[in-house]
């Protein structure tokens, strides 16, 4: 009988029946943004007059953070609106007006209009401010500049600040030129690489710790970290962070294609595929055809508006990090046609945070040579940021 049992098991194994399921390994805990960790920060809001710098990405599951906090009886006295507005429906660069939120009746205070910093009166009306916006980890994306100004105002007026952290979809990359403070602007305020590999929470800690704001020691800063997160993890954004970054591919290509904003080319603003195509109307590197048009809330006056353009379709390419080949190859084509590529050189230098990148491209340096020039500064920055990192 013993041998019969063994033979039966062997036969079952041959039929695939003996491969009985083993106990499943526990599933990895889901990434939990700081805003969803209510138990960690609701006690900090009790009895406080609260202001929020938020937009359409400020979600707790399927609900907006504002609605969740109101349901918990938090006293929200103001909502600060960054570029693209509180609802994320303003064009890039379009002024955002102050007003009143139609749903809640809470005052909306613009930080992307005549002033990009809260006023003294606005800060005196609050005891604590919250920053909760999904960033994409690229220095010239302006949400971190708005965070900087809010931190500065909070430090000056002794207002506590709470950052509800979120993952960085480009967090695995540390790349690009560091910003030279001679080129400091709203599209680059800190001496960090183009791809800094930090979350907004980590960056807030660094801004305070490195004293990139005045009176930094006065700022009572609290960061609620993302649970179960490591910076190398892939993170697909549940809500588009702005009208022209509608999907993961656009976000992955954005560090490389942002430089084209300083050229006469189109990167798809005014099409269903912004930051996923490159094209021009007079000569081209590819045969993909598209025509930018006015799209309210995304691109009312896009480059090459109503002009048939031809170029590259990048919707299916493998994208990630900083790829200089796009800007170098198109520059060389323009040079061969004796046409001006950087028609806004000052803006290019602001985007790059230095004049060196534009000059290196114009001098004909290869991507490898340009990258080599960044390495000492990137190595020093990697060490400088270490004390502020919250995630492996």
TrEMBL record:
Residue ranges of every copy of the Peptidoglycan beta-N-acetylmuramidase NamZ N-terminal domain listed in the record: 50-248
Gene3D superfamilies: 3.90.1150.140, Uncharacterised protein PF07075, DUF1343
Signal peptide, first to last residue: 1-24
Record-annotated membrane-spanning stretches: none
Keywords of this entry: Signal
Listed GO MF terms: peptidoglycan beta-N-acetylmuramidase activity
Domain of life: Bacteria
Residues of the Peptidoglycan beta-N-acetylmuramidase NamZ C-terminal domain: 253-391
Protein name per UniProt: Lipoprotein
